[in-house]
Amino acid sequence: MVVYAAILALVATPLFGAAVGVSVHLGTNTYIMGQVILGAIFTASFLLNYVVLTYLFAYIKVLTKAIKQVANGDFSIRLTRPHFHPLAATFSDFNKMVSELDSTKIMKEDFISQFSHEFRTPITSINGFANLLLDNKLDQEKQTEYLQVIAEESKRLSRLSTQVMTLTNLENKKIVTNQKTIELDEELRKSIIALLPLIDAKKIKYQLDFEKVKYKSDPELLKEVWLNLLNNSIKFAPENGAIYVCCKKEEDQIKVIIGNNGPQIAEADRKKIFDKFYQGDTTEKHAGLGLGLGIVRQVLILIDGKISIKSSYQKVEGTFFEVVL
Questions:
Q1: Which 8-state DSSP code applies to residue 291?
Q2: What pTM was computed for the model?
């Protein structure tokens, strides 16, 4: 519009000057010449308006066509953005929007693919071993072995279903309800006690460093964070290793550190470790579902918390998760 106004001014100014000049020199013919000049100004204005609108509508046509493609599910479309045109900012915003939609689509497809794969694996095992059990020639030892596999895979399927439901509910949750003031150090102790059988099974030591800390939130949501982080630390701790749990208050923040003296997480895995179903290349891969840390991240997003990964704690090297509330 600024360019349009400037061009109109450039056209109108000399014509107006000419009209004034003619008026001075022609006397009685002033009115006629004024009408001619005025007509010329309006004609030039009309032509300029037509050119500008044609130019603008050409870009609107391109944008409309692109919007239709997006409406039909094509998120690969991108609009070229010349430096100077009236819809440059709109084209830029359109490209950002489609890029975000494309990213969301890819994430959705990946999730569905991973979800179906994770469910298919235990179902295939259960079906396969159940069919083997139908063979009457199997001895008692084999039957027991196959039944144990079916029991384990059924348990895995049940855990997977529960965690997927938990994660889905968290992703659709916008407000934290059921908030209570809790003693965070006591909640951590309860979570550790709940996992003592796993700790004892691996002969793991645990080192606690707790301050008395009170915090207002949904205790059930926080329990998901502590149990998943503790489970993760126990699972990847070496036999006869150690896990570390710290809870302290620093100014207006609360910090909880949970980790072990086991192997460190590779730098490439750190960016993906909180994604759904992602599991790094580890010997314990078969034991996990790849959802625990996704649940942790979702809870912390909901309560405005943060989480980061550290490689050491109190001069002990390993993998440590630091939660900041």
A1: -
A2: 0.55
